[in-house]
Amino acid sequence: MSAQPADPTGSSPAGPPASGPSPATGSAAAHVLKPGWFTVNVLNRLVAWTTRRGISVWGSRVLAVRGRKSGEWRRTPVNLLTVDGAQYLVAPRGHVQWTHNMRAAGGGELHLGKHVQEFTAVEVADDAKPALLRAYLKRWKAEVGVFFDGVGPDSSDAELRRIAPDHPVFRITVTASR
Questions:
Q1: What pLDDT shows up at residue 50?
Q2: CA 153 to CA 135: how far, in whole Å?
Q3: Contact between residue 96 and residue 128 where contact means Cβ atoms under 8 Å apart
């Protein structure tokens, strides 16, 4: 794969997803919180830059997934969550471009420096998300807590279930490393 600049927003040149029910929520208005200028132009680029050089910032990786329309690789920094030996990707900002692309592609690559892990991905059902969202918030609440509607790692299972449809979670299985 050729080196391409990171796409800090995880967006596709095709624009926003078509309206209609979200695969995970079944609702027409999928939850999306777009990043601001500082996040896109400073934070995400800094995390992606350090991660591309092999320095993980609290579990950071650069996710590469094929665009669902263009077929081109799209990149965005993500936090890799490990719970009971299984690995997950959580979308704190909701149903953003990388989540739509992941559903279409069924997997992708995680980059940390020159190390690349190819993986397949399966979306986690909303009822199975509370423990995963709790673990994610326990680790990264300071970074992403604002995107979870006041819900934190100490919130009840009912509160975590309430926000579960707004935050896609994918269980990933590594298929190859290089």
A1: 79
A2: 7
A3: no
The CA distance from 5 to 52, in Å, is 10
Query: Are the beta carbons of 159 and 166 closer than 8 angstroms?
Result: no
Spell 20-39 as b/e; 16+ CB within 10 A means b.
Answer: eebebbeeeebbbbebeeee
Return the structure tokens found at 41. 């132009």
Cα–Cα distance between 19 and 8 in angstroms, integer? 23
Write the pLDDT tens digit of every residue in 131-171.
999 999 999 998 888 899 899 999 999 999 999 999 999 99
Please count the other Cβ atoms lying within 10 Å of the Cβ belonging to residue 46. Answer: 13
Reported as a single tens digit per residue, the pLDDT across 100-128 is: 999 999 999 999 999 999 999 999 999 99
What percent helix, strand, coil does the chain show, rounded to 5? Answer: 30, 30, 40
